[in-house]
Structure formats: C-alpha cells, structure tokens
Amino acid sequence: MQLDRTITTIAFDADDTLWVNEPYFQEAEQQFISLLKDYHSAEFLSQALYQTEVKNLPLYGFGIKGFVLCMIETAQRITENRVAPERIAQLIDLGHDLLQRPVELLDGVQDTLEALQGKYQLILATKGDLLDQKRKIDLSNLAPYFNHIEIMSDKQTADYQRLLQRLSCKPEAFFMVGNSMKSDILPVLDLEGYAGYIPYHVTWSHEQHSELPQHDRFIAMQALPDLLHYL
After folding, report:
1. Where do the domains of the chain lie, and which CATH numbers do they carry?
2. Structure pTM?
3. Backbone φ, ψ for residue 127 (5° rounding)
4. pLDDT digits (tens, 9 = 90+) for 146-167
C-alpha cells in the first residue's frame, strides 16, 4: 500500500513511539506492589491502582505526577489509612525517580526523522504532563526535526480537530503515527485522516484496544522505519 500523495503533514506520538516510557511505569507499579504486599495480593493492588488512575483522569490528566498521587491515594484507601508514613515517602521517591529517567530512543527513530525532514511538515503530538514532556523532548535532541510540537492534555477526536485547525491542515493531508490505538489511531480515522499503528511490547491497560480497524486509511507497521516504505 502506498499512502496518498496528498499527505503533507506527518505527526508522531512520543511515548513508546519515539522513546521508552511505559516500562518505567510498570517498574514503578511493581515497586508499589512490593511496598504494599503485606496488605493484599499483587493482582488486587494492581487492579486497585488502575481503578484509581482511571477515576482521576478527569482531574489529573495523564502523566507521572497524577500517577504518584494515585499510588498514594490507593495506598491509603486499601490500608484504611494505616499505611506507614515512610512508605508514602517511598512512593514519592518513586515519582522523583520517574521524573529523572533518561530518554532512550527506540531503534531507527533518528534515521527515520532525518529521511522525512524537509519532505513533509513533521509534528510531534504527545500527551501528558507539560513539564515532563518538555524535559523528555529536550533530552531526546529530536526537537530540530519537527516543524511544530504539541503537548496535548488528551487525544480525543476534538483534540485532533483543534490541532489540525492550528496547523491549517485538512484531515486528508494528515498522517498520525503512534503506538496507541485509542489515542493515536481511532480519533484520526474518525476525522478521515491517515493513521499508522506501531505496537509496543507493553501498553497501559487504559490504552489497549484489541481489534485493528478496517479502514482504507489505516496501516499497521512493526517499527518506525517501516513508515518509509509507504511514502
């Protein structure tokens, strides 16, 4: 399949598309479980934390700071406020560690961006905590490849509509690349834009979607460099 030549703009998700992200959260969750294993099973603790995260998304949005607050809230709730203060301090330390993790680019990212630069308008469209996303963008050294960087609070259809308006880009000229079916793919297809899905080996439960869309503007790839075969 060759993508339509009307495409002028290619947008990239960042976390787990350009660099490693979710494995760090999963490591932190395992440490959370280890700290509270005297109270409940690992399965119970994992599910309780996830429920707290989903409940608080309208308040905190996506990102590390909200995740830390959710760990603390969950710890207090499932222990009926009996969790030791030093364990709360350890959960806060987990957050500090997450906020200082190095940025590890995924294979082929820089070469792919170099190959596309100047041929298309390249956009970085990521969601999450503003300061943390800016930190990762700076550490990645990828900013010079992009014509525009957008840190989004969410990635619903309406959010992409606003992005396209800011870019003065029609949906049929827009191609979004990312690892989340729910955040990067389906909303763009709803607008009749193009979308390229690159699965990552771990995905947060809230972002998981089991079925591939049947859409003539959708492509599935194994890695970011595969994108060059479609352009």
Report:
1. 9-18+106-229 (3.40.50.1000), 22-100 (1.10.150.240)
2. 0.90
3. -125, 155
4. 999 999 989 999 999 999 999 9
